[in-house]
Hints:
Blueprint: H1 3-15, E1 20-25, H2 28-43, E2 48-53, H3 60-66, E3 71-75, H4 82-87, E4 93-96, E5 108-109, H5 124-134, H6 141-150, H7 162-172, E6 176-182, H8 192-197, H9 211-220, E7 226-227, E8 230-231, H10 239-255, H11 260-265, E9 267-273, H12 285-297, H13 301-309, H14 314-340, E10 343-344, E11 349-352, H15 359-371, E12 381-386, E13 393-399, H16 402-406, H17 411-420, E14 425-428, E15 432-438, H18 442-456
Parallel strand pairs: 1-2, 1-3, 3-4, 4-5, 11-12
Antiparallel strand pairs: 6-9, 7-8, 10-11, 12-13, 13-15, 14-15
Helix pairs in contact: 1-5, 2-5, 2-6, 2-12, 2-13, 5-6, 6-7, 6-12, 12-13, 12-14, 13-14, 14-15, 17-18
Amino acid sequence: xxxxxxxxxxxxxxxxxxxxxxxxxxxxxxxxxxxxxxxxxxxxxxxxxxxxxxxxxxxxxxxxxxxxxxxxxxxxxxxxxxxxxxxxxxxxxxxxxxxxxxxxxxxxxxxxxxxxxxxxxxxxxxxxxxxxxxxxxxxxxxxxxxxxxxxxxxxxxxxxxxxxxxxxxxxxxxxxxxxxxxxxxxxxxxxxxxxxxxxxxxxxxxxxxxxxxxxxxxxxxxxxxxxxxxxxxxxxxxxxxxxxxxxxxxxxxxxxxxxxxxxxxxxxxxxxxxxxxxxxxxxxxxxxxxxxxxxxxxxxxxxxxxxxxxxxxxxxxxxxxxxxxxxxxxxxxxxxxxxxxxxxxxxxxxxxxxxxxxxxxxxxxxxxxxxxxxxxxxxxxxxxxxxxxxxxxxxxxxxxxxxxxxxxxxxxxxxxxxxxxxxxxxxxxxxxxxxxxxxxxxxxxxxxxxxxxxxxxxx
Length: 459
Ligand SMILES: [Mn+2]
């Protein structure tokens, strides 16, 4: 089986259809996948609309069916819901996904069948990009890179495998530049001292959370912070200043006995979108992805899609306001969690936020809490929040880290199998997954998942 050959024949079938509805997932990868697909189909002169949803399940399937499109294209979802799709009554549907597939299906492209890892080698937006590329369109490669970064596929410090092909195309197109540099979040859009103060990955003891200390630290290195309305951002620094700052941070973390692998992650590939304005969120792939997550998780994913397709007017303006609110929600969520703490079982940590944290961001907060060391990295974490669509149900978000994956943890499997036993549903990647379960099943569900993790770890 040849991946590119199969993507090509899939793409040719797709290009012969018309009157499309693209259905995608509301995170940054799903939003970019949707944008890549909508852009492709419009370039082909097709009639296309799109719908971006929180998840594809027995609740949302009805809304999708009601849209009565001629051809459905599912991006960044569908492979894990093939049986649901089969029973949905939808006649013609194409699936472009990178999540663990339930099985084979004729009109599906998924990297798992070719020995690739959908959590690491290619994102949903990357898969959409390969479909576009097979039809001669490479103009959205940089947007697909934003999706891969949004799915944290660069967490090892660089993109590789199929992601590398997408990245190289974007570089050849001159829409993106890649280099090794300090990977702290906010390198484009945040004033220097704030960039360091708000770093949660890694946490820098004595600097994180303390902008005044950061300013003093920077001045001690002879780095000018700028003043008033013209504060310097990281990207304004000279190479010499960047090196000085990076090695000072490195030394500081070493002195504090921070594990080597955490320090090394601090430096790695950064992706600069060359056609975007300097010192704005869109210029950096990670910041761009965060803005898209902000839109999606506040039920406004279409604003993110429009920004990806090219709207730099009202959609970008709205996306910026959504980003502000999102940052505030995350700050408050992290604060809530640090006060409350997590509960511990033999093979997992968990916390139940009830209605204190929105279900759409509780997984993001669980993930950030590893970086901020609110949750120790030695076990996976399960985060519960009320399901906003149905108050007899709980949303579960599970997060792990690469160390745990290497030991055998597979969250997607655990969420899928264990939620089913209670009439719920779930799935996802090894490192990040989710489920919905009846509220009264929580404790037994936890016990079962704890047991399954033990098995996965070989115990
Ligand atoms: Mn994805």
